[in-house]
Every structure is written in C-alpha cells, then in structure tokens.
Amino acid sequence: MVTLDRWIRDRARLTPDRIAIDFEGREVTYAWLEERSDELARGFSHGDRIATLTGNAPEHVAIFWACAKAGAIFTPSCVYCSSLKPLFRPAPCSSHTSWPRLTRSPAAAGTSATRPSSGEGGA
N or C, fewer C-beta in 10 Å, the chain? Predict the structure, then answer.
C-alpha cells in the first residue's frame, strides 16, 4: 500500500527535477516539495490539528504533504471566507515572507488562537 507521505517521497526520488506545480509562472519541483514538506513536518506531531488561512499557492501544497508525513490533521480555509478572519491571522513566518504562520483555534489542543486586534483584518 502506498500512503500519501510515501508517494511524495517516491516521486521526489524518481523524478526530483520534474515540475510538480506550475503556479502563476512559478515552477516547483518534486524535490522542492519533498524538502519543504520535510522541513515543515518536523514542527508537527501526530494528531496535531493544522489549520491554514491561505490562498492557492505551492506553499499550501507543501503544508498538505507535511501534515501527511507527520500524521497531522490538515484543515485548509480560504482567505476569502470572512467568517474565519477573527480566528486566524495570516502573518509572515521567519523562513519565507509570503508564507502565513500557522495558528490554532481555541478548540484545537487546548491552545489559544492568535486573534487580530481591534480593526485588524476583522470580518
């Protein structure tokens, strides 16, 4: 049986330089997806609930693969869904300025969410 985490590893090993994603003129290889998803997966644990608030982008796909590798639960949300804006605030992470920081809702693992301050990105 081939699992999701195994599939991306095998694809990157067999065809590392093949284009996996062509997004708005940016070509992303299977090797890049493997490397970036491994990097992200090191920060996740089995059973973690990972919620994202992003648009369509290669980075979103890397988060998907990272969750598969770590056994985390991936819950993507659309940046255009105004009802979620008070719960999740996209903010740049240290490794890439256009990537959102992943935050958790209050219900996820008993942690508190990063909430925007008054007037910042509200619905």
Answer: N
Compute the distance between CA of residue 99 and CA of residue 43 in angstroms, rounded to an integer.
Answer: 15
On whether residue 101 sits in a domain, the answer given is no
What residue ranges in the chain does DSSP mark as E strands?
19-23, 26-29, 49-54, 73-78
Tell me the pLDDT of the chain (123 aa) as tens digits. Answer: 778 878 889 999 999 999 999 999 999 999 999 999 999 999 999 999 998 877 788 988 999 999 999 999 998 876 666 555 555 444 444 444 444 445 444 444 443 333 333 344 443
Structural domain boundaries enclosing 57: 4-80
Question: Is 107 part of a structural domain of the chain?
Answer: no
